[in-house]
């Protein structure tokens, strides 16, 4: 039986680890949060007492952590010193390209196979096992990476060498951050013009305004039942996380000499919503700010 160590059982990692267990793999799970670890135990995973104990004896190590600093620390202190050299190491967090390349170099120097494999799809796809993975790895390792991710994935695409998965992810999320604000502005304007939100959805979703932010993740409550807008913008993809990704895109754009003015504007608007208290809410809650409302109260 394949032994999977899974570190980071939050909004995304919780469902992803559960799908590894559902596929019949032995999952040793670890998170700093006792509540997250309890949830994983209830979904067929075994709770490890520490990250280093989770990775001992693993065939595959998967991390789903908040940001680059967490990934660098867990790799340096827990994974590289304690995992068997035969283990395949896959980081699914969204982090900066430099951290991904630094961790890849350390892993390679220590004799491991490593892949950066950030995801697209949100918490519903994490729970359903239908995420899209974008992978940066050595070409010969890709088949093993694809097999390791299979219980959690709808599609897995190799973007290129180490760091390329993260490059694809921050470019994708820059599109998402900008498009969500566009959709929210349209709903706020439709409301001021006296147009019913559900009717606007019906028309725009069949017209040229159609996009993922509208039809799969609608910020206006009602038309898309699985969207966080129907549960007070709880869970989902936190504004603070979107802000992190847009900052990563701006840093990368500045380093690469690329122009990304709409990305910069979107970063400024999410930063404002974060300062107003919306950082813990799903990023589609920025609709409330654009409607001139206060952020919805925390749960
Ligand atoms: P989250 O904050 O819900 O989960 C992160 C988990 O990591 C937490 O449970 C935290 O306790 C744990 N953690 C932090 N440091 C740790 C350590 N040293 N050891 C063990 N556990 C530790 O975040 P999330 O929404 O699950 O996102 C995780 C990653 O996935 C982020 O990089 C995010 O950008 C990316 N992502 C999120 C979504 C989404 O919709 N939420 C979508 C795509 C990608």
Description:
The protein has helices at residues 13-22, 34-42, 51-55, 68-82, 97-109, 122-128, 142-149, 164-192, 197-204, 212-215, 239-256, 261-278, 286-290, and strands spanning 3-7, 26-30, 46-47, 60-63, 88-91, 113-116, 119-120, 131-136, 153-160. The chain is an alpha/beta fold and 299 residues long. The protein has two domains: 3-162, Rossmann fold (3-Layer(aba) Sandwich); 167-290, Orthogonal Bundle (N-(1-d-carboxylethyl)-l-norvaline Dehydrogenase, domain 2), CATH 1.10.1040.10. Helix 5 links the parallel strand 5 (88-91) and strand 6 (113-116). Helix 11 runs antiparallel to helix 12 (261-278). The relative contact order is 0.10. The structure holds nicotinamide-adenine-dinucleotide (NAD). Nicotinamide-adenine-dinucleotide is lined by residues 7-13, 30-33, 36, 51, 64-66, 70, 74, 93-94, 119, 122-123, 236-237, 241.
């Amino acid at each position: 039986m394949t032994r999977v160590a899974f570190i980071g059982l939050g909004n995304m990692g919780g469902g992803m680890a559960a799908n590894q267990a559902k596929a019949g793999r032995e999952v040793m799970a670890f998170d700093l949060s006792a509540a997250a670890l309890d949830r994983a135990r209830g979904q067929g995973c075994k709770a490890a007492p520490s990250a280093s104990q989770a990775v001992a004896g693993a065939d595959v190590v998967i991390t789903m952590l908040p940001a680059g600093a967490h990934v660098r620390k867990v790799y340096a202190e827990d994974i590289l010193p304690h995992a068997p050299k035969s283990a395949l190491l896959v980081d699914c967090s969204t982090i900066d390209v430099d951290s991904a390349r630094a961790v890849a170099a350390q892993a390679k120097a220590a004799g491991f196979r490593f892949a950066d494999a950030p995801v697209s799809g949100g918490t519903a796809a994490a729970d359903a096992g239908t995420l899209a993975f974008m992978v940066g790895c050595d070409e010969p390792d890709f088949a093993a990476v694809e097999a390791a991710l299979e219980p959690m994935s709808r599609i897995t695409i190799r973007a290129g060498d180490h760091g390329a998965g993260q490059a694809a992810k921050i470019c994708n999320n820059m599109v998402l951050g900008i498009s969500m604000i566009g959709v929210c502005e349209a709903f706020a304007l439709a409301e001021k013009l006296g147009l019913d939100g559900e009717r606007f959805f019906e028309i725009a979703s069949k017209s040229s305004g159609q996009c993922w932010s509208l039809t799969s993740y609608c910020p206006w409550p009602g038309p898309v039942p699985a969207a966080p807008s129907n549960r007070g913008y709880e869970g989902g993809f936190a504004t603070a996380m979107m802000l992190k990704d847009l900052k990563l895109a701006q840093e990368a754009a500045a380093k690469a000499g690329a122009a990304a003015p709409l990305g910069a504007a979107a970063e400024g608007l999410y930063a404002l919503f974060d300062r107003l208290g919306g950082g813990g809410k799903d990023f589609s809650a920025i609709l409330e700010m654009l409607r001139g409302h206060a952020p919805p109260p925390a749960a």
